[in-house]
Amino acid sequence: MTTWTGAAPPPAGRIGPAGWLRAALRGAAVLAVTFGGLGLMLLLRLAEAPLFAPRRPLTPWITVAVCRIDLLILGLRLRVSGAPVTGRGAAVANHAGWLDILVLNACQRLCFVSKAEVARWPGIGWLARATGTVFIARDPKAAAAQQRLLADRLRAGDHLLFFPEGTSTDGLRVLPFKPTLFEAFMAEGVRDALAIQPVSVTYRAPEGEDARFYAWWGDMDFAPHAARVMAALRRGTVEVVFHPPLRAGAFASRKALAAACEAAVRSGFRGGADGAGGADGGGGGAA
Q1: Structural domain of residue 143, as residue ranges?
Q2: CA distance readout (Å), 206 to 13, 30, 44, 93
Q3: Has residue 46 been placed in a domain?
Q4: Residue at 5 is within a domain
Q5: Which tens digits make up the pLDDT trace of 72-102?
């Protein structure tokens, strides 16, 4: 993943004893719900395999339920506008960090497209593999094979979620979309049947916090950021806008499709500096 190097957030205030207590209680609850849901998912897959193979009609809903509960535990209100595509298709969204995984999974059944390094992250990599994440390597020599893999998953009916900015941001802007992965949408047997839905995600910080409170980008460490989110006294909000889906076959090229998706995401984004960081955006690919 190419790192976007925007302005660093101001130094975080000290977490007091009450904040650490909230963080500990919320962290324990999130772990219990997440790994409890994962255990239930693995058990149900034993029944799904002989009855529904290769489809999985039941277990993805466990992921949706777990992510909704986790957001409640974290004190992050979810507001949704528009309707997610329920049939064959894919989604593309702006990206502000790890919370996007919970937010977008709470809205619909998805398979994320992620950088290959995530598969090796302790705990998170295991969860990503269990929920059907597609991992993409940063190797130009493998680009054609990876595009075929993505096209095959789309043909099989998986609903994939891409982050076309290629990196996460401070949550105040949308970076230019990179068209590389849009090539999978133009493949034979995909472009004339696939609906691509642009999705805008905007975070509202708790009262009194920096506007970039929920964003995780650049060289920020995960643990301190997660602790601060879990320690927050007041609740924040995340707004998700599902735009009308686009048909890949209606566009002459992947670049034209990427530009149309970017315009739609920008139209529903409510950040304070939308587009301001376009000139210093990162490289292409999925986050």
Answers
A1: 75-275
A2: 14, 20, 37, 23
A3: no
A4: no
A5: 999 999 999 999 987 677 899 999 999 998 9
